[in-house]
Every structure is written in C-alpha cells, then in structure tokens.
Amino acid sequence: MTPDVAAVMASAGTHVPAVSADTYAQILQFYARHMQLLDAGEAEEWAQGFTEDGVFAQNVKPEPWKGRSHIATSMRRGVDRLAGRNVQRRHWFSMVVATPESADAGEEEAVRTQYYAVVFETPHGGKASVYLSTTGEDVLVRRSGRWLIKHRDINHDGS
Amino acid sequence: MAPPPPDTADGRLYDEVQRFYARQVRLLGDGDVDRWALTFTEDAVFEQEAPADKVFAGNAPPVRTGRAAIAAAARGAVGERRADGRVRRYLIGMLTVRPAPDGAVHTRYDAVLVQTPRGGPCELHLSTTGRDELVRHDDGWLVRHRVNSHDSVAGSHTGTEQEEHHGRSDT
C-alpha cells in the first residue's frame, strides 16, 4: 500500500496495518540504544546505525547527508562543536507509529516510522531545558537480525 | 518472525517492564512512598550521582541500601515538596530492556522530572538517566539495584548501556 492510501485510510478512521508487538518493541529499543550513542558523543558508532547507503535529511540543512561515512564525518563535526559547550543532550523519541513497508532483497523486514523527537539539554552544573522539538520519519530495515536506518527525515519545528 | 537479538526484550517483556515503570513513577509522583517502596526488593540498593543538594531529599546519602533506607530518603523529599505545594511528575523514556540469564532484566532509560509549583508555571526540573536491575516477583517486577545519574553532574554516567552495569568503581 502506498503511504497516500494509508493516510486516507487513517483519516477515515479505518484500519491501518501495524507491525507486530515484537517488531515494535525491537524498534523502540533500537532507537533508545542508537540515540544513547549520539548522546555519548560516539558519532562513528552512531553512524553504524545507518545502512551503507543511508540518507539523513533535516529541514535545517541545505543538503541531506548521503552514505554512512558522510553521515559519520558530518555528525562528528557536530559532536565536537558541542563538546566545547559542556552540555549533556538527551534525544527522546516517542509517539512512534510503525507501519510495514515492502522489504527489498536481503532485508528480513522493512518498516516506516513516524515519531516525535524532543531534545533536552543540561549544562554541567546547570538547569535542564527543552532544546528542540522535531518530528521524524524513517525507513528502517532488518538485516541479519539487526535494524538499520535506510532513510531518515527530521523536521525541526518552527523552521 | 526471527527471535529478537539476545540483548533485546520481546514485545511481551518490554510491555511488562513499561507498565511496571508507569505504575512506579506514578506512586512516587503521588507521594505514596509506602507503596512505592514496595516496588523495590527488601535488600535493594539505590545509588544517585547527583549534586549534593539534589540527592533526592537534599540530605539523603548518595547510596541507600535496603527498602527502609530508600523509603526514608523518598519520604524526606516528598515531605519537602508537599510543604511547598510543589507537584512532581517523573517521565521515563528511551527504555531498553536486556534479559539476563538468571531471569533478571537490566534496563537503561532517560528520566525527566517536570515540576509545577502551586499556581504554576511548570518547569523541566531535571534530566537524568537510570539503570536498573529488575527481578521477577509474583506476577510483576521489583527493583533490586538502581543507579540514577543527573545530567548536570560532570563525569556522571553519560555513556551507553552496554558499557556497564553496576559499573561504579567507587562503591
């Protein structure tokens, strides 16, 4: 089913196909572990969560980051910039909608997700604040039992 | 479908643990310390990596051993905020659940504390991470070991779940 049909069915209040409870639990735990890596400043490990040809697009960037190595070097720059500011960020994903997608060869399962992603920021010795509110949309694939991001779109609210 | 990776809970277990936390945080938010304390094992250990003035009640020791000591520290905190008319809500997110061979589970999560003084406005009071060992008890779960780390503390636990559990070398 195309996303358009799914959207129409959802707005009409009819049934939209959903992933299994096991898949959903795996995806939530994948997101938690993956964003722990970023919050720990491990940009290269974090980039391993994308497929080799993965794409990371954000509405605040002129061009998407394409390919795991480009994603790694671009995020490394961001992490190093942040390290100078002595803050701890926490990326929270929630309100995750997950619908099945058709899997390509070599993929055991493919899922499209939509979610909210809020970022909390705490300066060392200081007070926590909400740094950012965004929405995200991913295409995830499972290969050899491991979830990977094939495509990620992040839209910063207010941009 | 294929079984989950060994470090990942299946849907049923993940659901159980999420419900455990939903109930547990509500008990603390409601100030029901007696019932909240019963969500820990009798011999549980609760460690906090927090600034001295924010170790739970402000005057509680950073490591509490045993349900009674854990409850006493929480009672102090609840009493203080009740006197000031402050309401606290604990929100847990980004949860991972890793089953251990002995039937326990190791969890790792982010937790924020939203506080509302009488008359408002609400504020984001704290951002923390938590790492628990949960053990099965009857139909549910109990906390046997908890480490709660405030993000405001430089050098507090900020790494990923896989690096450690009960990994503090100074206790």
TrEMBL record, chain B:
It comes from the Bacteria. Residues 14-146 form the SnoaL-like domain. Residues 160-171 have a biased composition (Basic and acidic residues). InterPro entries: NTF2-like_dom_sf, SnoaL-like. It holds the Pfam family SnoaL_4. Residues 147-171 are annotated as: Disordered. This is Nuclear transport factor 2 family protein. It comes from Streptomyces noboritoensis. The lineage of its organism: Bacteria, Bacillati, Actinomycetota, Actinomycetes, Kitasatosporales.
